[in-house]
């Protein structure tokens, strides 16, 4: 849901955000047993990159004093670091 500050109709100046939602494509291709380790490592690497990006966003929001978004990012970061998503040896 997108929300904003209600205002009277007219001309406004300021930053704008263009939201473009791409279609999510899920690759359902089967992999062989010898590819499993490689795919798990690829997943864990992607998760680490996403977590680092979220940490950067969190720092920028704190710097800008945007306090409303911080709790939701905290939850996302917590989920991205869940042990159940980690590789079990």
From TrEMBL:
E.C. number:
2.7.3.9
Q: Which GO terms describe its molecular function?
A: phosphoenolpyruvate-protein phosphotransferase activity
State the UniProt keywords alphabetically.
Answer: Transferase
Q: Which InterPro entries match?
A: PTS_EIN, PtsI_HPr-bd_sf
Q: Does the keyword Oxidoreductase apply?
A: no
Any matching Pfam family: PEP-utilisers_N
The broad enzyme category this protein falls into is transferase
The Gene Ontology biological process terms listed for this entry are:
phosphoenolpyruvate-dependent sugar phosphotransferase system
Q: Does the keyword rRNA processing apply?
A: no
Domain (Phosphotransferase system enzyme I N-terminal): give its ranges. Answer: 3-69
Family the entry assigns: Belongs to the PEP-utilizing enzyme family.
What is the designated name of this protein?
A: PEP-protein phosphotransferase system enzyme I
Which gene specifies this protein's sequence? ptsI_1
């Amino acid at each position: 849901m997108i929300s904003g500050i209600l205002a009277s109709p007219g001309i406004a100046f300021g930053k704008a955000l263009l939201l473009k939602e791409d279609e999510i494509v899920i690759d359902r291709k089967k992999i062989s047993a010898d590819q499993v380790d490689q795919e798990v490592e690829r997943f864990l690497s992607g998760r680490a990159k996403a977590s680092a990006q979220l940490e950067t966003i969190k720092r920028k929001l704190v710097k800008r004093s945007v306090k409303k978004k911080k709790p939701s990012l905290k939850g996302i970061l917590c989920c991205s670091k869940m042990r159940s998503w980690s590789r079990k040896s």
